[in-house]
Amino acid sequence: MRRIGDKRKGEAAPSASAAGALIAIIAALIVLYILFVPPAEREKILEGTGGDYVTSEEEGGNTTLFELKEPRMFLPETEKKFERIFPSVTLYITEEGNVLKKVDSVYARKSLFSEDIGNIDFKVDDKEHTKNILLNFAIKEGKGRLTVRINGNTVFDKEAAAGNIEPIKLDDYVKEGINTVLFSVSSPGALFWATNKYSLEEVSVTADLLRTEAQESTVKFILTKAEKENIEKVMLRFFPSCTLGTVGKLDISLNGLSVYSSVPDCGTPSVPAEFSPNYLVSGENTLKFSTTKGRYLLEQIKLSADMKKVEMPVYYFQLTSEQIGKIADEDANVTLSMKFVDDVETKNTDIRLNGKLILVNQKEMTFSKNINDFVEKGNNALKLEPIDALEVVEMKVVLAES
Predict the structure, then answer these.
(1) Looking at the domain assignment, is residue 74 inside a domain?
(2) What's the longest Cα–Cα distance across the chain?
(3) Where are the alpha helices (DSSP H) in 181-299?
(4) What does the alpha-carbon distance between residue 254 and residue 235 come to, in Å, rounded to a whole number?
C-alpha cells in the first residue's frame, strides 16, 4: 500500500520554473492587451479616470478625442449656501360695519277678520365674510304678542312695551342671497271687535363685513435643477410685526404644502421654520402667506439652505506624438465645442485645460474654440469651473486633420 507522501516510480515533483513561466505568460498577455486597446480604454485601466465620457472614434476623417455623452449640470465648487431674500409682506383683515337694510317704519296688525303682516328683505352677498348680523327696531306702540320670523325661523315672540328692544342676532338663520323678515301680531281672540297691532320705527339690519383683500400674499422664486438636486437643509426666517391678542393664526405654505401654522411671538427678531427640501421644485416655486385675523407686517423674509459639497470632475483625453506633430505643423486642429440648454441665460464659466485658462461668457447656445495652444502630448486634463450654475447638453474635443 502506498502511503500519503510516497511517490511512484517515475513521478516528478512540480517544477518551480514551470509555475514562474506560467505567471510570465499571463503578465505578457495583460501587457499586450493594454497596449492594443484604444488609448481611451487604456487610460481608464491605468488611471481609473474619465469614466464613460472618454471616447476615441473616427467621424468623417475627424477623431473625437473626448465626448460628454449625457447632459450634465455643473455647479460652482465654492457654492455652499442657497439664499433668497424677499420683500416685506403686509397681511390684514378688517371689519367694517354696514347697514344691509333700513326702513323708517313697519306696521303689523290682526283682528278677527283681517291681518296685515309687515316685512323687509335684505341681501347677503358673502355669507362667509358677513358676521354679527343684527335686527334692530324701536316699538312706537304695541298691543298683543309680536312675532318676528326670518326665512321661516322664529327669532322673537312675546309682548313688548314701547321703546328700543335688544338687537336680535340673525347669524344662524341668514343665507347667502335674499333674506326675508316677517312681523306678525297675535289674534285678539274672542274680542272680535278688538285689533292687536304693532308700530315699529327705525327698523334696520346691520352686519360686520370682513374685508379680506389683503388676507393673503404670495411671492415666487425660481430654483434651478442643479440647486434643487443639491439642497440639503432648508430654513425660512421672518420678522413678524403684530400686536399679540389682536391677530389670528399665521399660515405659510410652499407650493401648497404647509411649512408654518401658528401665532408667532410678535416682535421676535427671527422666527425660524425648517422644512424638507422635497417641498421645493425645479422651476417656479410659490410661497404663500395668509392669516385669519388682525394685521401682520412680515419683514426680513429669507429662505436659506445648505448645499451638498460639489466637486466638478476632471475629464481626460490623449494625443499621440504623431498627432502633436501634425498640430505643430498646422496639418491638424483640435477644437473644443460645447452646447448649452438655451440662449437666454448668460453662461459664465472658466475652463482649465492642462492648467491653462479658457474663459466663457456668453448667451449663445454654442461655444467653440481652437485649443491647439493648450494641448500637449499624452494625457490632457479638462475641467469646468463654473461661476454660475451651468447646464451643458453636449461637449466634445475633436481632432481634425487637413
Answers:
(1) yes
(2) 154
(3) 225-230
(4) 12
Range of the domain at 233: 215-307
Is there a domain that residue 33 lies in? no
Q: Please name the residues in contact with 312: beta carbons below 8 A apart, sequence gap of 6 or more.
A: 74, 75, 77, 383, 384, 385, 386
How many Cβ atoms sit within 10 Å of the Cβ of residue 248? 16
Residue 295: Cβ within 10 Å count: 16
Single out the residue of 232, 250, 253 nearest to residue 306, CA to CA.
Answer: 232
- What letter represents residue 142's amino acid? G
pLDDT at residue 21, rounded to an integer: 64
Candidate from 157-166, 253-262, 307-316 with smallest mean pLDDT: 307-316
Look at residue 302 and tell me if it is in a domain.
yes
Q: Cell for 216?
A: 393673503
**Cell digits for 162?**
314701547
Q: Select from 307, 332, 353 the last residue of a domain.
A: 307
Q: By the 8 A CB rule, do 317 and 382 touch? A: yes
How many Å apart are CA 159 and CA 146, to the nearest integer?
A: 6
Q: Are 68 and 392 in contact (CB under 8 A)?
A: yes
Q: Residue 283: which residues within 8 A CB-CB, separation 6 or more?
A: 222, 223
Task: Quote the pTM value.
Answer: 0.51
> Angle at Cα 235 formed by Cα 231 and Cα 308, nearest 5°?
20
**Could you identify the residue written with the cell 455623452?**
69
